[in-house]
Batch of 2 targets.
Target 1
Amino acid sequence: MRFVIPSPFKLRLAFALAAAGLLAGATIDSKDFKAGDFFNIGKVWTADFVFTPEQWKAITPKYSGFGGGFRLQGPEGARNGLSAAGGIQFDWTHADLSIDSRKFADIAVRYKGNGTFRQAQSSGKISLKVDLNKYVKGQKLAKIEKLNFANNITDAGWMNEELAYRLFRDAGVPAPRTSYAKIYVTVTNSGPREYWGLYSIVEDIDDIFAQDRFGAKGGLLLKPVTTSLFHYLGEDWAKYNQTYDPKDKMTEAQTKRVIDFCKFVTSADDEQFAARLGDYVDLDEFARFLAVTVWLTDMDSILDNGQNFYVYMNPETQKFSFLAWDQDHSFGQFGRGGSTAQRRNFTITHPWSGSNPFLQRVFGVPAFYDLYMAKFAEYRKTIFRPERIIDQVNEIAPIIRPAILEESEARAKWFDTIVSDNGSDNYTETIKGFVKARAQSVNDQLDGKIQGTTLDRGFGRF
């Protein structure tokens, strides 16, 4: 299938916007270079990683023999996820990195990913996590310490992360910024510089991110992995620690607040729960977060697998907010989440599969449910309009296609199918096909014409 080139006007507009964004910002090696200049969707950076043979050997994953803990949880104190639960451990190693003209010496780098890592092992195109500050204190890029280079191997359109995070941000939900990079890897004295392909650069959700978005220091970041979110397990934090994976050492007050919320979610009667839920959760933010998550039909999330999101406790309000992460399966592209037709018609009134006690309780609170439905009513006229997202696809596609073609002609052809106006849905979901069908389904659900499809068997569970 031929690549459907956007109209000349749209193509000129895309490159004009990209050029405007680049010219407006400072160059990467200047003092006034800002994070907004780096996370520029119209720019494809060139990132070169250089390892010594010893450093390259050290990045090799270790297989601990861990047989798997609670579902997708790794061993105590280690990372969580599918690969971690299977005993795969990623260790940091040293390397040098240059991004265009900016050089960073002695960075920390490791592999990242779970399902994406497993799928990438045969191709060698593996996601990377970089910490500029770990070995050289104070080394940053526009105040950024950590970067995630996502391989997009499960995302044939190479833009799910970019489009989904943009949708969250447009809804007023704090979400990572992104850009693109062509990744090259060199192992000294071991062969030529090797092109790994086009990656998405994703801003890390860390203390720097939280302080920037929420304007407060000392907040708590958790990255839960559980299908029984905020279930009370007693007063000993050790029983919660691996499940909630705190990103910093918790204070006694923070620990108590999380456990108290778990006790409240588990034990409060319906009247108490409805009256006091807003004391613990930023209901407006949670309504916006869930509206976007549900519209994207991302079942590799809080809606099914109980992963790929952060919870942030604001130190000033003591309320919890929810942040999206790992959006490669958004736009209905999580294959385990039912058929294409089911994902497009996913219900907005019962948006979870299997048993999800936390969401079930929250959706039973009229104050929250009315707010959540009001977000859908608002967004269908604004950010959920399919033509808006289709225009974004048309802007990004010509910018990144040359780098995809450098990977292989086969990947470029598959990319053409996924982003074209008439791409086939026989093998995987296309972005444009999904947003048009999803918008129609949500509109019909809001208008009372259909009920939507409930995924009630836990399609995404491992």
Note: Residues 381 and 443 are 10 Å apart (CA to CA).
Target 2
Amino acid sequence: MPKAYWVVRVSVREPNRYPEYLAAAKPAFEKFGANFIVRGGPFEATEGTSRDRNVVVEFKDLATAKACYQSPEYQAAKAIRQQISEADFIIIEGA
């Protein structure tokens, strides 16, 4: 069964509150075995548009990736993230 990923591009409007989102999301990440492949860091946008922050999170499969996103734990964190940032967020199955 292929792994699945959250691919998220984020522009943070309130960087001082971003740790609040991460702390709120941590229980969901732990519960669903999230593995951060990319978590911010320097990047070069070679084509198209970009955002300030890029994140890739690996899950054991698509069902788990979706369950994490839909969980009450992550939905509470998402509410914080949406207050302090704008994001492009996809859940995708790996090869």
Note: The chain has a mean pLDDT of 97.
